[in-house]
């Protein structure tokens, strides 16, 4: 995700914008994409929690860990 911010910042600076303003603009523009990515990743890993069986116990724990950590990191900003 950070490469998107760096590229957007560089493009804004090339257009003549001040570095600080370019950084703020790039961060504001990437929030929507980062939020959508996090929601999709959580939605993809969540159905694994509904599977039953011995080997699926590990997958359930892993799915919950991934889903929660992605959502926390998305809204941590």
Characterization of the model:
The protein has 77 residues and is mainly α. The chain has one domain (2-76). Helices cover 82% and strands 0% of the residues. It has three helices and no strands. It has helices at residues 2-14, 19-45, 54-76. Helix 1 runs antiparallel to helix 2 and helix 2 (19-45) packs antiparallel against helix 3 (54-76). The protein is rod-shaped. The mean pLDDT is 77.
Give a quick rundown of the structure.
This protein has three helices and no strands. With 77 residues, it is an all-alpha fold. The protein has one domain.
Q: Could you list some keywords that capture this structure?
A:
77 residues, mainly alpha, single chain
Helix and strand content put the structural class at mainly alpha
The low-confidence parts are none
| Domain tally | 1
Number of strands: 0
Count of discrete alpha- or pi-helical segments spanning 4 or more residues:
3
Mean pLDDT: 77
**What's the helical proportion of residues?**
over 70%
Binned strand content:
under 5%
Q: What is the 3D shape?
A: rod-shaped
Series of H and E elements: HHH
- State the distance separating the first and last CA atoms: 13 Å
Give the biggest sheet. none
Radius of gyration computed on alpha carbons: 18 Å
Layout: helices, strands, pairs:
Elements: H1 2-14, H2 19-45, H3 54-76
Helix pairs in contact: 1-2, 2-3
